[in-house]
Amino acid sequence: MAYPTTETLLQSFNTTHRIIKMQTDGLTHADSLLQLPFRGNCLNWVLGHIVVGRNSVLKLLEASAVWGELETARYVAGSEPITNDEQALPFERLLKDLDESQQRITTVLEQSSSEALGKLVKTRQGEQPAGKLVAGLHWHETYHTGQLELLRQLAGKNDAIV
Description:
By secondary structure, the protein is mainly alpha-helical. It is 61% helix and 5% strand.
């Protein structure tokens, strides 16, 4: 098997969810819109992008996504940076949707078998096992979870979460 087990994936998503919640604790919607002084994106976009990735995980595991196309389009890779309040979803909604995605991922992984993770999915690189794609999406989530530490500090928090 070239991908983690359902138990390992569940533990991995639980860990990043917990860290994301700690890194966003005490922040406001205004904090989530603060821009870095160099090329990058705000915490609001990064958190929304994580939810987009989780939607992809849910679809791969044949579960219902948290967001539709309208919300997803705002936060996909390559989308325009969020530079003002009108472009962003409310921060509290992003956190609520993150929690909902966690519940759905937990449920589907607890009910999934190794056969479900082995199901081949068509990609641009050919057919890949769903479990390998889910593991790759989780790795991508860890990358963005790490960005939240710096974005938290940008909001004036002078603490060490992890």
